[in-house]
Amino acid sequence: MTESDPQLVLHRIDPQKNMQRYYAMTVQPNLLGGASLIRSWGRIGNHGQLKVDLFDDEAAALRARDRLTQTKLRRGYIAQEAVSAVSPQPLILQSVSSVR
């Protein structure tokens, strides 16, 4: 993850535990001259929760994003690119098509 990446999406999928979670983070400038770390998380296929943290500058927001990323990686989350190599179809589309 570099500073120029607009969004980081992590997944944690364990079929044996019926676990399909996502955790998405992005850093964006805010109207107060600082930066916002926008986090979204929940079960894949659902809306989940959203939280916005305000920081004085982009560097502080990036440090917080990196710290949260390391925590999630230790807990078993993997980056979206690694998940797409395992499952080329988006999981949301798979769950919708199985309902029909």
How would you summarize what this structure contains?
By secondary structure, the protein is of the alpha+beta class.
The CATH superfamily turns out to be WGR domain
SSE ordering: EEEEHEHH
Q: Quick one: biggest sheet?
A: 5 strands, antiparallel
From the coordinates shown, what is the CATH architecture? Answer: Single Sheet
Share of residues in helices: 25-40%
User: Any low-confidence stretches, pLDDT <50, length ≥5?
Assistant: 82-100
The mean pLDDT is 82
Radius of gyration: 15 Å
Record the strand order, biggest sheet: 4-3-2-1-5
What is the CATH domain class?
Mainly Beta
Percent strand:
35-45%
Report the end-to-end length measured between terminal Cα atoms: 37 Å
Number of helices: 3
Count of individual beta strands: 5
Give me the secondary-structure category. alpha+beta
Give the CATH topology: q64v53_bacfr protein fold
In total, the number of domains comes to 1
Shape: elongated
Structure, explained:
With 100 residues, the protein is an alpha+beta fold. The protein has one domain (7-88): WGR domain (q64v53_bacfr protein fold). 33% of the residues lie in helices and 37% in strands. The protein has 3 helices and 5 strands. It has helices at 58-74, 80-86, 91-99, and strands at residues 7-14, 19-29, 35-43, 49-55, 78-79. It has a 5-stranded antiparallel sheet. Strand 3 and strand 4 (49-55) form a beta hairpin. The longest helix has 17 residues, at 58-74. The N and C termini lie far apart (37 Å). The model is unreliable at 82-100 (pLDDT under 50).
